[in-house]
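Design request, tokens follow.
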């Protein structure tokens, strides 16, 4: 496991500033985070199925995370934290940009949701372990990917569930996510750096090094007819679960 000193290198200040500058529009479905608003239901569909499979909860239940602790890393302004809270979890969100967590806290208060938000490095937070840890569209923005994964695992309960999504490093993602999407304004310019994208094989290795087994990736694809949707096509983006294969190291 990486120590806190190494994990402090995970935040890139320029990345935090980039996303912090978008905080005021984060909850506007037609604003700079419009793509995240379209992506969120797709991620939630995958996540709900993963939760039911992992804990054996009913697909008809409205609060499958009741009694569970949930941590969303790179939470932005809380687009995922709020649905997790409505599913019954006691939610903590952490983000590199304090502007984002301030916007998240204000929105949660307006929605009458009790969510704890904090800004800064995950390694510097004394917050214990969580049943569910999520990091959606985050690992491609960190400075030290092994240290980041080590910190995610450090905060995962022994029988917990980890869920990550990230763009794949392929020719298609370079053309569409970095080139076309930023050119037409679907994603703010400077959001993505293709060389930082992580392939499923690389992510499996990162998780394996920390004692976790990764599920078969599900693609998040786009078509003019379906929009963003879960797919077998992982060429643009993918989402996975991971679980411990052995007791955590001490």
């Amino acid at each position: 496991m990486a120590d806190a000193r190494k994990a402090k290198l995970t935040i890139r200040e320029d990345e935090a500033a980039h996303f912090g500058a978008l905080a005021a529009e984060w909850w506007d479905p037609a604003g700079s985070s419009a793509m995240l608003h379209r992506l969120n239901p797709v991620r939630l569909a995958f996540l709900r199925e993963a939760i039911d499979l992992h804990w054996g909860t009913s697909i008809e239940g409205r609060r499958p995370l009741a009694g569970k602790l949930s941590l969303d890393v790179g939470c932005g302004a809380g687009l995922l934290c709020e649905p997790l809270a409505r599913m019954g979890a006691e939610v903590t969100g952490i983000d590199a940009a304090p502007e984002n967590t301030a916007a998240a806290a204000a929105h949660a208060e307006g929605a009458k949701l009790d969510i704890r938000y904090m800004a800064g490095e995950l390694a510097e937070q004394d917050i214990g372990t969580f049943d569910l840890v999520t990091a959606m569209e985050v690992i491609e923005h960190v400075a030290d990917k092994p240290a980041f994964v080590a910190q995610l695992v450090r905060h995962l309960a022994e029988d917990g569930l980890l869920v990550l999504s990230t763009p794949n490093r392929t020719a298609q993602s370079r053309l569409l996510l970095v080139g076309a999407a930023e050119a037409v304004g679907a994603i703010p310019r400077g959001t993505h750096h293709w060389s930082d994208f992580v392939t499923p094989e690389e992510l499996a290795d990162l998780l394996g090094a920390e004692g976790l087994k990764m599920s078969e990736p599900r693609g998040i694809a786009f078509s003019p007819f379906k929009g963003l949707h879960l797919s077998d096509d992982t060429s643009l983006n993918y989402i996975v679960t991971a679980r411990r294969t052995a007791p955590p190291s001490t």
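Comment from the thread starter after seeing the answer: thanks! DSSP finds eight helices and nine strands in the chain.
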